[in-house]
Amino acid sequence: MRDVKILLVAFLFISASISGCIGKEVISEEVDNENLIIDELIVPDPDKYECMEFEGWDRCWLTYFPENINLSSKSPVIFELHGWAASSFEMRNYTSITSLADDVGAIVVHPEGLAIPNSGAFGENEESWNSGVCCGDAKALDINDSGFLIKLINNITEEYPVDENRIYFTGWSNGCQMSQRMALEASHLIAAVACTSGYLGFTDDSQYSPIPIMEMHGVLDEIAQYTNSGRLTFFEEDARTIEAIQNGAVENLYDWAAFNNCDGPIIDSNEPNAVYSIQRFTSCGNNTEVALFTSFAGGHNLYVNDICDDISYNFVWSCWGTQGTFDTHQIIWDFVSRYSKNESITN
């Protein structure tokens, strides 16, 4: 009888232990990294929005953990910002950045801009970012997107095993513009920015300390034209300014060279390729660089996938992808991953 009681107690103990684990998707691992111990890391569902209230608005995002995340060390984070009229889900599907994340072990965050009905903006009720001279609802209502993104950076670094020295921003079109605005307003948090098909539309550098910047642009860009943004200013009421009309990919390069206190009046590095070139200022403040990637046959979409389906403004552009002529995300990663906030790891 005593043996039966012992077995019964053991059974109840094991059952209680198991029931305490049911219903939780957690990663339990001890991490000896700056005395950080992660006991139960709850990995977010990559297909469900997480949201918080910020300045009266519900602000949402998606978080993707790579398949090969290594909890024995902190992971870099890539914030990828969608273009105007594209959601976080659409951006992730268009660019397939999660494949890169799995390869390099980076966490990816897809924040979402606000879509506001009756804002009075051109193309209202479409997701957008207040990047300065553009775009849509966010610009029309002067939404504090920078504040939201800064708070999101802080939340992500507090909640997950993130390397705070390797926070990178990328984005497409309006998302590229917003990434560059974030460089000026959050250079204390961001290690590097590399984005596609968008110019800087914000010029207050009072909070800026130089970080590496690369903008990728297609010569045949139908929306933000390579030589100027005349097409954009035609369709976007909020961008009809002299600064926007005069801007262009090369001018954007030189603007950043000025912000980064780069040596010399001309580029000091040119890497030609059959389908693209990379021009750089390599001797800049804080041991940074500024680069312009030029795709000779590229349009507004510099990602591999064609994205013409369900795009509200596809009548003004081709929306064809690169057809694999180059790997956009690998080029972005090769650029940003050479930099860390605590030290330069450039070759």
Please give the radius of gyration in angstroms: 22 Å
Beta-strand content bin: 15-25%
Cross-sheet strand order for the largest sheet = 3-4-6-5-7-8-9-12-11-10
Range of helix content: 25-40%
Task: Count up the domains.
Answer: 2
What's the average pLDDT? 83
Structural account:
The chain has 347 residues and is an alpha/beta fold. The chain folds into two domains: 1-42, no CATH class; 48-336, Alpha/Beta hydrolase fold, catalytic domain (Rossmann fold, 3-Layer(aba) Sandwich), CATH 3.40.50.1820. It is 28% helix and 24% strand. The strands form two sheets. The protein has a ten-stranded mixed beta sheet with strand order 3-4-6-5-7-8-9-12-11-10, sandwiched between helices. A hairpin with a 2-residue loop joins strand 1 (26-33) and strand 2 (36-42). Helix 5 (145-159) crosses helix 6 (174-185).
